[in-house]
UniProtKB/TrEMBL annotation:
Residues 42-61 bind DNA. The keyword DNA-binding applies. The keyword DNA-binding applies. This is TetR family transcriptional regulator. Pfam families: TetR_N. Gene3D superfamilies: Tetracycline Repressor, domain 2. Keywords: DNA-binding. Residues 19-79 form the HTH tetR-type domain.
Length: 211
């Protein structure tokens, strides 16, 4: 794997050395699993979307489950850690709580948007797929101590409400951003001013956690 920070997983996939047919199947699976869910997508639909035969799918992937894991594993084991570390390394530049919240909200929301297909697959498959849930649980267990230690070191320098511990502050920041992302994904027909909405989210978080 090339340890370069790409804009999104789809771009990373396009840049990996692999047969054209395999790449087409992975891209088709990524899109269709996100739109229709794993159980709602057939290998015939994937083949049609990818412009290949079903035989080509099974040439590279033993089962549909194997295809799903081939999409999820690089994200969990390589892509996510790279973005996590790049994100955490950027925290040191911010001098105020407002600047830090602005960065976290905008940076994480952009990451979710850039990787919407992968995020939606994770969201649905974690509820029903034991293997996907185990993969995600393992990376979260490894990542949370790293995230907590660096964020705590940064956030504790600012004036926060004394009754709030760090997990509450963390959940407040992340949950607001996630909720807005899913709102935009599932109610996308509504008129929206993202910049205005995100600013309101930042203001609400600052009021919730700032002293």
């Amino acid at each position: 794997m090339n340890p370069t920070i790409f804009k999104n997983y789809r771009q990373w996939l396009l840049d990996q050395p692999m047969p054209k047919g395999k790449r087409s199947v992975l891209l088709a699976g990524l899109e269709l699993f996100a739109q229709q869910g794993f159980n709602g997508t057939s290998t015939a639909q994937i083949a049609d979307k990818a412009g290949v035969s079903q035989a080509t799918i099974f040439k590279y992937f033993k089962t549909k489950q194997d295809l799903l894991l081939s999409i999820l594993q690089p994200i969990i084991e390589n892509f996510f850690p790279l973005y996590r570390d790049d994100f955490l390394d950027s925290l040191s530049q911010f001098k105020t709580l407002q600047e830090l919240i602005h960065f976290i909200v905008r940076n994480r929301y952009q990451f979710l948007k850039d990787n919407a297909d992968a995020v939606l697959i994770f969201t649905t498959e974690m509820l029903t797929n034991d293997t996907a849930r185990e993969l995600f649980t393992n990376i979260i267990k490894k990542s949370l101590p790293i995230i907590y230690s660096k964020l705590i070191m940064k956030i504790k320098k600012f004036n926060l409400r004394t009754e709030l511990d760090f997990p509450i502050v963390f959940r407040t920041i992340i949950s607001q951003t996630l909720a807005y992302f899913f709102q935009r994904q599932f109610i996308s027909t509504l008129p929206v001013d993202e910049d205005h909405d995100l600013q309101l989210i930042e203001d609400q978080i600052l009021r919730s956690v700032g002293a």
